[in-house]
Amino acid sequence: MAALPVREVQDLIVSTVKANRVTVVMAETGSGKTTQIPQILLEAGMAESGGIAVTQPRRVAAVSVARRVAEERRCSVGQEVGFAIRFEQRCSSETRILYLTDGMLMRECLVDDQLSKYAVIVLDEAHERTLNTDILFGVLKSLVQTREQPLHLVVTSATLDGDKFSSYFRGCPVLTIPGRCFPVQLSHLLEAAEQPYLQLAVDKALDLHLYEEAGDILVFLTGQAEIEQAVAEITSEIANMPEHDACPPAIIIPLYAALPPEQQARVFEPAPDGCRRIIVATNVAETSITVDGVVYVVDTGVVKQKAYDPHTGMETLTVTSISKVQAIQRSGRAGRTRPGKCFRLYTRADYDQRMPAETVPEILRTSLQAAVLHLKTLPLQVDVLHFDYMDAPKRGALEDALRHLYLLGALTREGAITPLGRLMAQLPWSLCWHAPCWLLLSWTAWALPSQWWPCSQPNPFSRGTEDPSRRKAWVIMFSSSASFRGGRPPTMPHPGAPTRGCL
Fold first, then answer.
1. What SMART domains does this protein map onto (predicted)?
2. How large is the average pLDDT for residues 429-457?
């Protein structure tokens, strides 16, 4: 633990955080910022008046990091170290370090706008600029100045614009901690490839498996369909190789957000002796997660990003080039536990000239309805059009969100939150569910078992490995008129109608 770069400057970290309400820490990938900074602050006595909350952009990261830190603290998860994600939490009154998703911290703001049970909040992987993290920037920037009980905010990342963040947080100090744990050798294509990136990635993974020394391989692709195709092709190629006897055994492991948690956990299980793991993942493996044994990274240079068109009201997932920040993060996966190699399936010119320097913040390219709804629900009288955003979205996008929320009955004509709006903010599902779910909630004569509720189920319309009977049950419930008492669904009430009886 003492060998980690963050541990070597722990006194500087403690003194800076204690002296300032907001601190930005820039530490290279593998330096130990995610696991060690909360422990350093805990050991310095900064959790005496409240706990330490550490946000993560993804659920699998929050769970895996909590387990790792609990192991280092020699305690069970849920005691001194815990986690909280949607539909699952392992924490208790003894918990001093809590890893949670940024969405969970947003929901805590709805219950306790002062976040009074926390003395320190760490916003980790801030460079990802998720929608929830950007909203938390503005909320916490105000809270650290106005809360009577002192609150310290620590913003951490391996790659972010320190000057920009310092300026936004009123000139806060920026600590730069150099030194990756292990060196990573970078390789680029000499010229642009004519093959599709999926085939290039499969071929490179097979080449590494056959001719490189021992060490696990991590391949980055864009989504579930591509990953399943790549897993099938790699498995088939290894099984059908003529030199199969000379080919070492391999375990092919997929990793993406929609994968059930018990299958995601396979990525943390060590490979048997003499066997190599080939992990095919989306950008869920880009940050926070330390997969022991990964030595080789295959970076395709692309990612699926969500984009929202306010004219059609539709969100789309499009394959686009990653940013330089993401490329650095991906290469860092190879140097977490030993020296590694990163093979970038794009040219150096692509990296230097075509890749954007930073990832476009999600708040600038997605629907703002959920974010505006949460801001309106906070007891802070927030003016969403003039909220203190780090990167303000277009006014038209904010007005579009306000208009949709008014049509759904979540806001009054004056923009105030309605009782229905408060109920909608508490329901853990996308706003696209609220119209059909209003019908479900309006069935005063109906009482569906909890396991039928959409908020407790995986996406029924995605291709996946979940139980097919559940997906079939969803189809029956939503398509059969017999599901409704009397043979037809009830009429959706006018948005201005009273909400009495909806439960």
1. DEXDc, HELICc
2. 50
